Fold this sequence. Notes:
The protein has ten helices and ten strands. It has 233 residues and is of the alpha+beta class. The chain has two domains: 10-116, Jelly Rolls, CATH 2.60.120; 140-230, Arc Repressor Mutant, subunit A. The strands form three sheets. A four-stranded antiparallel sheet has the order 2-6-4-5. Strands 1-7-3 form a three-stranded antiparallel sheet. A three-stranded antiparallel sheet has the order 8-10-9. Strand 4 and strand 5 form a beta hairpin. Helix 4 (106-115) crosses helix 5. The protein is globular, with a radius of gyration of 18 Å. The chain starts with 9 loop residues before the first helix and ends with a helix.
Amino acid sequence: MKTQLEPRNLLLRxxxxxxxxxxxxxxxxxxxxxxxxxxxxxxxxxxxxxxxSGVISxxxxxxxxxxxxxxxGNEGFIGIPVLLGVKSIPEVAFCQxxxxxWRVPAEKFRxxxxxxxxxxxxxxxxxxxxxxxxxxxxxxxWTHTIEERCARWLLLTHDRVDGDEFHxxxxxxxxxxGVTRGGxxxxxxxxxxxxxxxxxxxxxxxxxxPGLEKSTCxxxxxxxxxxxxxxxx
Length: 233
């Protein structure tokens, strides 16, 4: 579908204009609702999505629970397995905060990777930052307090949404952090008592961004710096 819209997605914006327009000529702008799946476990991946807004979670199954390993906003894309020539994966990706994305058929994306070296280079650089986020989140979940991890997650989400408010249930946040709802209540309560956030009826409002950055561990800063140094060249 031909489009004249200027994308908000950072990866698309970094492409030379002719290549961006060629990729988007086969794209469809789609809306994702909360918990809508983009990638399902062990099922063929037919599309690559470049988010314009919202947040997408990538999760892995641990025993009977899904645990988030990374999330993606309008800085990157969903469909790394297609980049690597893989047809399916045991992980899932679904919408954590509703938004929209440019949806490109996987076959068109593979064709463009062969024809447009700039696209392949950008996707590889983004892949490096994604893998860094996965590794850092894994270590953080084993090492740092729930409060620090909650602050890290809220900051990463805040980076990817418009404004200071976003909707998130306790159950969903517990899944993202791999903890119980009681753990979420404790961590969010500490941050709320410090007047860094409010958390009422599933709506989080960031009140003090600098204070939230001071409350998190070094992982948030490490993830951001690596992204800026590797992708935002």
